[in-house]
Every structure is written in C-alpha cells, then in structure tokens.
Amino acid sequence: MSDVAKSQTPPPSTLTEPGLKREPREHHHGRSPASWIGSMTALAGGVVGTIGFLAGSVGVIVAGFVIIGVALVATVLLRSMGYGQPNPTEGEK
Length: 93
Hints:
Blueprint: H1 3-7, H2 33-55, H3 58-80
Helix pairs in contact: 2-3
C-alpha cells in the first residue's frame, strides 16, 4: 500500500463512532413526468435526425433538431408547473 493511502484517514462510520447518526439521502433519479416527456421527446428527435442523416435530407435533420428543442422547452415548462423533480433545498428553511 502506498504512503498516500496509508496517511488518509477513513471516513467515519458507526463502527468507529457509535454515536454517529447518518441521515439517508433520498435520491429521486428523475422519475417525474417532466423528465420522462423530455427524455422521450429528445429520443424521438434524435431518431428523426438520424434518419434524416442517413437519408441525406437536410430538412429531416433540421426537424430532428427542432423536436429536441421542443423537448427542452416542454421539460422546462413542465418543471415550472410542478411536474418535475422537487428541489431539495426548498425544504431546508
């Protein structure tokens, strides 16, 4: 083991500090209507753009980019309407 690894102290645990209380973090992982709509719409835009690229059609490629832009706007609007992931700092007041 290197000297650097030996010199670093391990993080505290309940074994080394019995009085240590750790609060579990809640991870949302993006399971919200806003994230699903945004992801699936962006995926559709990517598929349309790829088809346009393979077909050599600039108009279809541009349509794919427009669909991706719509996905971004839809995600932002849905999140502002309350359908997105809750902000963890809102509850800490």
